[in-house]
Amino acid sequence: MPPVEMLVPHRLPEDAKVLLVVNEGHEIHHVRERGYLEAPVRIKAILGTLIDSGRFRLEPARRFPQKHITAIHDSAYVDFLEAVCEKLDPERPVYPYVFPIRNRTREPEDLALRAGYYCMDTFTPLDRNAWRAARGAIDCALTAAESLSQGQRLAYALVRPPGHHAERRAFGGFCYLNACAAAAQYLSASGRVAILDLDYHHGNGQQDIFYARADVLTVSIHGHPRFAFPYFTGFEDERGEGPGLGANINFALPEEIDGPAYRETLADALAQIVCHRPTALVVALGLDTARRDPTGTWSLRARDFMENGRMVGRLGLPTLVVQEGGYYTRSLGRNALAFFEGLTATPSVARQSREAGTRGGRAISTTI
Ligand code: SP5
Ligand code: ZN
Question: Which atom of ligand 1 is nearest to the CA of 174?
Fold first, then answer.
């Protein structure tokens, strides 16, 4: 079979394109410390490749009320983030350094101590624009989620800072607000939802947020916490609690994994998602599973991302993809594009784009 890109018409009709919502203001959050990998160039690298492909339709983000954030985050945490970030000197980010591992009952007054009260590591700073940028990412994810609820079958929230490490009341791992969780929460108003986290690092944020919920399934495929961040979560015996028991599934994989081995686990994860019978799927797309990623140890290549996308697309679910990690700038664009080529290559997605009103003859389905 020839490569997928040769099978798809060069100019897609607008309604056959993937809806793309980009966090326009993301550059305001820029931690300039050497070695801080979560940098604005990540979005630029992906966006350039996507635009050149002609397969995406850009839509501006709409503003959503704060209640969508407090639906998934503790309101004291949200107030803290907003108030503190606005107060900071733009040149002076605050790094947490003391953590309440013995007693969490009293929130300290001192700003740097409060940072530790609400944080899980020492490398994710609070800075002047972290709140505003993270809020922008939430608006993008919600704009894309809303489009799904209006009949769009596939949307991509291309955002930074990432969100999947942000828990109900904690930031860390370069994340402040959990955009994929906000989108899943939004979509859960109209039916069961599944989150599939494909980032190299465990999706502890949405695990924490939905741990006791049966209606939102959280699945994560990641490097085993014995060697991979966030180190203290992501074990396979974390299965949910109360009504949510069984609705959290972790696949903790070894340090070395290639494309075929990864797909064996992905197939298991997708089978679990089918069992949950969701009405919508949120994919937390980390590209740090790629070869040469400085935070990961795996070796996926563009063709693997395409195959992964193809497998996810075969579920035939309305799908929202939210960008998470991925730090090897040179391959970010091609790997993201390959994932979407795979996603849109499936007959089921093509069938849906016909239903969504794609003109006959130019539909993706006619070429596959
Ligand atoms: C969203 C995501 O992929 N987060 C990944 C977090 C993994 N971080 C690895 C730890 C990096 C610590 N480096 C400290 C650099 C600042 N001195
Ligand atoms: Zn990651």
Answer: 4
